[in-house]
Amino acid sequence: MSETSLQERIEKWMVGQMPIIQMHGGTSVVREANPETGEVVVELGGTCSGCGISNVTAQNIKRDIILDFEEVQNVVVKVPSTGDSGSSTVEGGRGGDLQYSNESAEHF
Asked: Which residues form the NIF system FeS cluster assembly NifU C-terminal domain (predicted)?
């Protein structure tokens, strides 16, 4: 499998398995999906920024991707702690000036 193929499969999985993210105004993007190393990086944005259950969502994504994709060994889900989640936010919540937090190693 190529990187693109794994990334596309995980992106399709995210849309099908995690529609609640989009329904609540959140966004998600697969930043990396390397079938050779088994590493996947997913970034949440939009209303996921500052959401009280974003850590639960992140843990569910990690667990489920590892269970559903045998070539995946490690999943990192990045969740913005603060930052612009308005109309200028681009896919993955990367618009605006993100501020970094020490809340968790997975938060940026």
From this structure: 19-76
3-state secondary structure of 78: strand
Indicate whether 64 pLDDT > 60.
yes
Q: 3-93 adopts what CATH topology?
A: GMP Synthetase; Chain A, domain 3 (3.30.300)
Q: Which of 77, 52, 55 has the alpha carbon at shortest distance from 66? A: 77
- Six-digit token pair at 66? 């590892």
Ordered by start, the domain boundaries in the chain are 3-93
Percent of the chain with pLDDT over 90: 43
Q: What is the mean pLDDT of residues 81-93?
A: 39
DSSP 26-50: EEEEEEEEETTTTEEEEEEEETTTT
**Beta strands 39-46 and 74-78: pairing type?**
parallel
Q: Are 55 and 81 in contact (CB under 8 A)?
A: no
